[in-house]
């Protein structure tokens, strides 16, 4: 289980001027899928980065399976079994897809072809290509997700994994999350605005204005959305929890 | 007879574990110590100055020539002049390179002047690696000068790597491209401590539909200095592209001086140059996979320099 207790994050550390998270309390249980949603800039990615150790809390504690990881570095947290798929993946001149996936896997035995297949890429075409700007945004995103799928994780956080992924591959992507979840008993946290991702959730976490505004069920959220659905009203950002850009449901 | 040290240097600069197959000439401490010709490749010792002529018969395909140079003494100043005649329609790999082991306090220097004539329709891949080591405080200096003329329909691939341990280098490369000929250059350079490296590449695109692609990647660490002067001159309908990327670290200094000159309205020339630190998003990504910051940095540099 991962627990965040009273987490504040102030990016500049100057007494609240750049505070992006305010008193976050969250318990993520093993083997559950959480979908985190809410308006842009509300703090979803900041929570994810705090879990990974990219953002350091100005106060509060984080525990993973009762171990205090608050002061652990990114690398140490990774070795404890936390993974994070970035919203905007890094490009690397010289580093090939094969290298990245093998680095990610470490001692975990993986089938590179299967991993790439799961994210909709053909291994033959991609394994020996550099992860550089010749890739489209969608391709980079898939490789980023593949790097997380290569690992045996306790907690995997995916930051808007659907961005840049075409409609045709979406189904496979959602199946892949379920597969990972079942294979390794992984706690999965997905930051998303997509209804199809919301449908995977055991629990939905609504984040707004640097706080958790609500922890609820997908049924409630989907019901709320369906009430609002007349002529894409969601685009007006009118849902009280702040789900924006979600798909219209008929 | 090659010593263990000689073999180590040969492995570093030419991936050789022993004397190679096929044509070769091994030069050690200013003298040729071992040579072999084949039916298609003849190596002749020059009579007027130090060096060799390498004559590759027209139509020779799938053969390689190894001409490594090793220096294992301090105080040497070895100069060599090699001339390559790559026959019409041939397709060969030439592996050069120089390794210096300097055990003393005096400098050890090798200056190699290589002149290539790549005849019509020939394809030459030239691999040159430079490496230095040794417990002595004496400088390890390598100054290669490479002059290449590529005839019609010829193709030249150059792989020029300065892997490690060279204290000072000035690399001069001059290439002339004739009609429909093609040049691909891959240069990789690493400097650290107080090392310095200068690379000057001038490509004259003389022939119609000739093309050149130069990809230069370097890493400068500590107090080292690098200067790149890469120049493309398009005299006719031609295409040229220079991509010069450097990662700069610590207190190093890097200068990248682009020059593209077109003397014809159908010349298409591009120069891209970038100098910067290792991107933080790259480091962070690798750290999220469990690598320490140092391991992440090493992985990025290793990948960048291939």
Quick description:
In chain A, 33% of the residues lie in helices and 23% in strands.
Query: What portion of residues of chain A is helical?
Result: 25-40%
Strand content of chain B: over 45%
> What is the second-level CATH architecture of chain A?
3-Layer(aba) Sandwich
As for the number of domains of chain A, it is 1
Task: Describe the main β-sheet of chain A briefly.
Answer: 6 strands, mixed
Q: Return the string of H and E elements of chain B.
A: HEEEEEEEEEEEEEEEEEEEEEHH
E-strand count of chain A? 10
Largest inter-chain contact set:
A-B, 25 and 22 residues
Distance between the termini of chain A: 37 Å
The radius of gyration over CA of chain B amounts to 20 Å
At the fourth level of CATH, the homologous superfamily of chain A is P-loop containing nucleotide triphosphate hydrolases
| Count of helical regions of chain A | 9
Q: How is the CATH topology of chain A named?
A: Rossmann fold
Q: Tell me the quaternary state.
A: heterodimer
Strand order of the largest sheet of chain B: 3-4-7-10-12-14-16-18-20
Overall outline of chain B: globular
Shape of chain A: globular
Provide the low-confidence segments of chain A as ranges. Answer: 230-250
Number of domains of chain B: 1
Mean pLDDT, all residues of chain A: 86
Tally of individual helices of chain B: 3
């Amino acid at each position: 289980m991962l627990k965040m207790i009273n987490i504040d994050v102030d990016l500049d550390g100057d007494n609240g001027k750049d505070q992006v998270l305010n008193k976050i309390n969250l318990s993520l249980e093993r083997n559950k899928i959480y979908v985190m949603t809410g308006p842009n800039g509300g703090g979803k990615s900041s929570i994810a980065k705090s879990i990974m150790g990219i953002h350091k809390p100005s106060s509060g504690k984080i525990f993973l399976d009762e171990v205090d990881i608050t002061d652990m570095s990114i690398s140490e947290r990774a070795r404890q079994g936390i993974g994070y798929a970035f919203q905007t993946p890094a490009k690397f001149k010289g580093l090939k897809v094969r290298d990245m996936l093998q680095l990610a896997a470490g001692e975990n035995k993986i089938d590179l072809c299967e991993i790439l297949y799961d994210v909709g890429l053909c291994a033959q075409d991609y394994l020996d290509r550099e992860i550089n700007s010749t890739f489209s945004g969608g391709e980079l995103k898939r490789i980023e997700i593949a790097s997380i799928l290569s690992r045996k994780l306790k907690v995997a956080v995916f930051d808007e994994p659907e961005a840049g992924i075409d409609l045709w591959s979406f189904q496979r992507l959602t199946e892949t999350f379920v597969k990972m979840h079942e294979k390794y008993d992984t706690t999965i946290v997905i930051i998303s605005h997509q209804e199809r991702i919301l449908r995977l959730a055991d629990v939905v976490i609504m984040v707004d204005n640097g706080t958790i505004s609500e922890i609820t069920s997908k049924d409630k959220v989907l019901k709320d959305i369906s009430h609002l659905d007349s002529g894409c009203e969601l685009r007006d950002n009118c849902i009280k929890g702040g789900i924006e850009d979600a798909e219209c449901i008929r | 007879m090659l010593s263990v040290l000689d073999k180590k240097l040969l492995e570093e600069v030419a991936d050789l574990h022993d004397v190679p197959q096929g044509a070769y000439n091994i030069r050690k401490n200013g003298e040729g110590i071992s040579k072999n010709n084949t039916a298609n490749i003849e190596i002749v010792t020059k009579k007027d100055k130090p060096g060799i002529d390498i004559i590759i018969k027209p139509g020779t395909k799938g053969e390689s020539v190894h001409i490594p140079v090793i220096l294992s003494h301090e105080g040497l100043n070895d100069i060599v002049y090699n001339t390559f005649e790559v026959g019409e329609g041939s397709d060969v790999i030439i592996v050069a390179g120089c390794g210096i082991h300097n055990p003393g306090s005096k400098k050890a220097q090798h200056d190699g002047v290589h002149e290539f004539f790549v005849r019509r329709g020939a394809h030459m891949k030239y691999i040159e690696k430079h490496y230095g080591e040794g417990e002595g405080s004496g400088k390890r200096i390598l100054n290669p000068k490479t002059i290449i003329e590529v005839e019609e329909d010829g193709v030249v691939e150059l792989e020029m790597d300065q892997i490690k341990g060279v204290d000072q280098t000035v690399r001069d490369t001059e290439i002339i491209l004739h009609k429909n000929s093609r040049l691909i250059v891959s240069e990789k350079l690493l400097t650290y401590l107080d090392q310095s490296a200068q690379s000057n590449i001038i490509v004259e695109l003389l022939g119609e539909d000739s093309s050149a692609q130069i990809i230069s990647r370097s890493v400068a660490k500590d107090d080292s200095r690098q200067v790149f002067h890469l120049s493309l001159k398009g005299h006719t309908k031609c295409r040229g592209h220079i991509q010069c990327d450097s990662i700069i670290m610590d207190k190093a200094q890097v200068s990248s001086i682009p020059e593209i000159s077109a003397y014809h309205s159908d010349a298409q020339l591009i120069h891209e140059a970038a100098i910067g630190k290792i991107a933080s998003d790259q480091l962070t990504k690798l750290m999220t996979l469990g690598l320490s910051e140092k391991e992440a940095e090493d992985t990025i540099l290793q990948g960048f320099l291939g």
